[in-house]
Amino acid sequence: MIGRPGNWFFVVPWIAFIPWYGMLITMLVCWAAQGHPIYWFMHTEQFPVYISDIGATNLRPLFISCAGWQGLGYVITVACEFFQRSGHWPGFLRSSSNKDYSKVEYHETILSKKYFMPPYYTRHERNLIFAAVILGGLGEVALLMCTIFSTALYHHVHLSMVGVFVVLMFFSVCCQTAQYFMMGRRYALFHPLSSENPDAIHALKWYQLAGYKYNKFIISASMKVVWLALAVVWAICFAAISDNSKSACFEWLLAFWFGVLFMIISWDFYMGGRYMYSKYFHQIEAIHGYYKYDSEISSSKESSFASTISEAKLEDSADADEININNQV
């Protein structure tokens, strides 16, 4: 049975890619309704035609708008990953809080801070997702340029932008995959079902796993690896096959396959958002040596200490006022 979501961020990826699918289906339907034409700027017979060929016709406004929507949606989606795990958007400082957090157990501290997903364990994971946002944003700008500079009028520029888009998106997804793999390696060690010492992470090589290996982070990283491997194969086929008909088939396949990535991210958001309802989350007593958790606990203690000092000052002030009144009397 599917449990209730912890938040609604998992809907964001669907909002981002559904118009993209709508554009692809609309293009195919319109091309079929027109009788599968070979357009004036094409030099050979082929079936099907490339996405860019249809996008260079009267459907160009649809091509530009939906590609732009998908691009903006991808950047916002990856930025939502950063926000849910850090408490602030990429490039913005985290707002200070005046609340008094006196909890010392990490799960209570994290719950009191109201993170939408469990925070990062190290700065490396934070930096990876930030890099994914930047690389993805630049890649999506290149895709938008592909739609603006149509293959009919600016063929070489169009192809160059396609290459830039593919390369940058590859590295963006690589960063996301590495982030989840790194989080999964650490989560596997301090998971309640693990018999390993969390300090064993220092004895492991970067590719080794120990403890509770089949956790949600490792599963997500594995799905992204499979997605990325197939995407690379199909991208190579799209670029390397000289037969335009077969090459176009791989382009369409790759375009629809892109939507699967959004589905995986949506699953990440859904599972991550439910961490507060996990039967194992409250069994973890402490995580030592991880910057986000340690900083939260440290800030909790500092806040508690500051509150104690403030109360002491108020008491001293009240005592002094009482002494002055007695002296006057």
TrEMBL record:
Taxonomy, superkingdom: Eukaryota
InterPro entries assigned to the protein according to its UniProt record, in alphabetical order: CWH43_N (IPR019402), DRAM/TMEM150_Autophagy_Mod (IPR050911)
Domain CWH43-like N-terminal stretches: 9-271
Ranges annotated as spanning the membrane: 12-33, 128-153, 159-181, 225-242, 254-271
Keyword Transmembrane helix: yes
GO CC annotations on file: endomembrane system; plasma membrane
Keyword field contains Transmembrane: yes
Keywords of the record: Membrane, Transmembrane, Transmembrane helix
Pfam family, one: Frag1
Location in the cell: Endomembrane system
Protein name as annotated: CWH43-like N-terminal domain-containing protein
Lineage, broadest ranks: Eukaryota, Fungi, Dikarya, Ascomycota, Saccharomycotina
